[in-house]
Amino acid sequence: MAATSMLDHSTPQMDKLTSEIFSILETNFLFGYQNAPSVPIKLTGTTAGKVRILSIDGGGATDGILAAKSIVHLETNLRRKSNNPNAHIADFFDVVAGSGIGGVLAALLFTKGKNDRPLFTAGEALKFVTENVSKLRRCCKQGFFRRVFRVPAKVFDFDLTFGDLTLKDTLKTVLIPCYDVKTHAPFVFSRADAVEMDGFDFKMSDVCTATMGSYGPVKTTSVDGRTKIVAVGGDVAMNNPTAAAITHVLYNKQVFPFVNGVDDLLVVSLGNGEPSSVVGGNGAPSRTALVKIVGEAVSDTVDQAVSMAFGESRTSGYVRIQGNKSLFGAKDEKKYANMLVQADDMLKQHNVESVLFQGKKCSGTNLERLEFFAGEIFKESERRKTDMLPVVLLNRTTTSSSARTSSATTVSTNSSS
User: Fold this and answer.
1) Membrane-crossing residues (predicted)?
2) End-to-end CA distance of the chain, in Å?
3) pTM of the complete model
4) 186 near 240, Cβ under 8 Å?
5) Rounded to an integer, what distance in angstroms lies between the CA atom of residue 417 and that of residue 119?
6) Residue 290: which H helix or E strand, with range?
């Protein structure tokens, strides 16, 4: 009965959340950023380059494997172009946002390991996801909401992977959302908040547990005990975190002083495959299928809004990688039980691009688009070697402040108690 009560109470809040997210998109993307702080430095006759953003969706049809494979292809291309076999994906992006299993991938790839290098390569992150997919799976036979609001005895132990590492131990700007049941609003774990303010540094193992939310509401407390939330998975709050990442960069002038709009961004948004519709005995979608359909619909809407924001520059500034499971025939069902095979074939599918006021069109394959954007990202890396203007001013010191520079990405208020 408790599960039913909480579900009924949170559903209108989710509708409110969706409205708030797209209100932010409409205000700041379509009508000229009129609420964004003014740029402190004026540029004359020069450019400060582009901020590179990587956004990773929650579970989807492949439970993170499509996104992980996409990152492997990106890293492989970037290693070849840079002639550096030891390069990591974190060397080529300034911001990473990940939700659910996407948040776990972000943590694996952008948290410091030995010698201040990332803990995992892209290949190692893919192996981690595939080996633990059954434990990390977003949905189970009991149904999504029953699983969310009923806590089993055992959860996946991220401590074995991250130990005592915290948000402060990440290499670049990191944004990982969850849904805070306590305040009925999304909460974004942010490196900027962890570095700049007391009360917002969390252990990476707790961040991953919270954004997965695979075993029910998780009580999560900051390292200093000042902030406490009750977290449900990030893919409930923000399955596609691309808009949150863009908003963060546009508002955070302390770290990204020269960003005036989306023309100053390079954005790679990775989906995890649109799930096939699952119908019940009466021909209607099952409850689990409905949750997936709603999640993917919101993700698609974010894609449309972001594509509209980029306008004519979307082909060189923004790419969305997504796969369509429904394109696989019934005869292939056994073959595609292997998600690695499924993800490989999704990467070979045509890339579906959202076009301003014109619906969608195909533009090459997902693999071809990944290779093209690897080239654009590498060009930006090379350009920075000869440019004296810093594109990113990443804060590596801990300070206390009365204002959070990343507050634009956090819809939830401070839930300290």
Assistant:
1) none
2) 27
3) 0.81
4) no
5) 33
6) helix 287-310
Token pair recorded at residue 246: 């863009």
- The two tokens of residue 403 are 């204002």
Cβ neighbours of residue 70 closer than 8 Å, sequence gap 6 or more: 270, 321, 347, 366, 370
Cβ 49 vs Cβ 262: under 8 Å: no
Is residue 231 within 8 A of residue 179, CB to CB? The reply is yes
Average pLDDT, the chain: 79
> Which residues, other chains included, contact 18 with Cβ-Cβ below 8 Å and sequence gap of 6+?
298
CA distance to 175, 245, 405, per residue, from 186 (Å): 12, 14, 17
pLDDT at 329 over 60: no
Contact of 258 with 112, CB cutoff 8 Å: no
Residues with Cβ < 8 Å from 283, sequence gap 6 or more? none
The torsion of the CA quartet 320, 375, 381, 257, rounded to 10 degrees, works out to: -40
Structure-model confidence comparison of residues 4 and 372, the more confident one: 372
> Under a CB-based contact definition with an 8 Å cutoff, are residues 134 and 202 in contact?
no
Dihedral (C-alpha) 103, 359, 31, 314: value to the nearest 10 degrees? 60
CA distance 43 to 18: 36
Dihedral, 20, 25, 31, 33 alpha carbons, nearest 10 = 100
Return the amino acid letter for 417: S
The single-letter DSSP state of residue 389 is S
Which is more confidently placed, 335 or 271? 271
Q: Which helix (H) or strand (E) holds 348?
A: helix 339-348
Question: Is 42's pLDDT higher than 50?
Answer: no
Please give the positions annotated as active site. 99
Model pLDDT for residues 91-113, shown as the tens digit of each residue: 999 999 999 999 999 999 999 99
Higher pLDDT, 331 or 70: 70
CB atoms within 10 A of CB 263: 15
Distances in whole angstroms, Cα of residue 402 to Cα of each of 232, 396, 412: 28, 18, 17
